[in-house]
Amino acid sequence: MLENILRRASVRRYEDKEISQEIIDLLLNAGFSAPCSKNCKPLHFVVLDDRETLTSLGENLQFASMLRFAPKAIIVCADKELSPKCWTLDASAATENILIAATELGIGSVWTAVYPYEDRDQVVRKFVNIPENIGILSIVPLGYPAKEVDIKDKFDAERIHYNKF
Q1: What DSSP string runs through 16-57?
Q2: E-assigned strand segments in 49-153
Q3: Is there a contact between 42 and 82 (Cβ–Cβ < 8 Å)?
Q4: What is the DSSP letter of 139?
Q5: pTM: predicted TM-score of the whole model, two decimal places
Q6: Dihedral sign from CA coordinates of 97, 30, 1, 85
Q7: Which of 34, 58, 83, 154 could disulfide-link 87, Cβ–Cβ 3.0 to 4.6 Å?
Q8: 132-146 confidence digits (pLDDT tens)
Q9: Can you say whether residue 10 is alpha, beta or left, with left for phi > 0 and alpha for psi between -120 and 50 degrees?
């Protein structure tokens, strides 16, 4: 697991190759396995595999243009009524689990933020019809990497503090 965490990287270019339902189910299971506040189970996921929807989102979300070419994507959401103070934290943990699981399964992925941007939120709601009580945190485009992934060493000893800052 540690190896997958250390080699996780943002992948924005994908091969034209389908991702099996078995892999999608594993990624969703990883997302649902994330910790959540008070075990309130607020998570919802929208699996995107409709080419028209993926293309429309990619064309209308400048930060997520890679959706135009991704075979699939997962929108990570949470019920704001079940987790009013922590829904973003709950959905963040789920997003990270999906990213790490994707790395393990050889799937390229990238965290694209929807929250806290109101304009992005409205675009996603327009194309995917998500109810207002459901907070949209992120969209995770998914696909087999089109090229070798560059792994970056992000360890920074100067930012580690013991006992005092």
Answers
A1: S----HHHHHHHHHHHHTS--GGG---EEEEEE--HHHHHHH
A2: 72-79, 108-109, 112-113, 134-143
A3: yes
A4: E
A5: 0.95
A6: positive
A7: 83
A8: 999 999 999 999 999
A9: beta
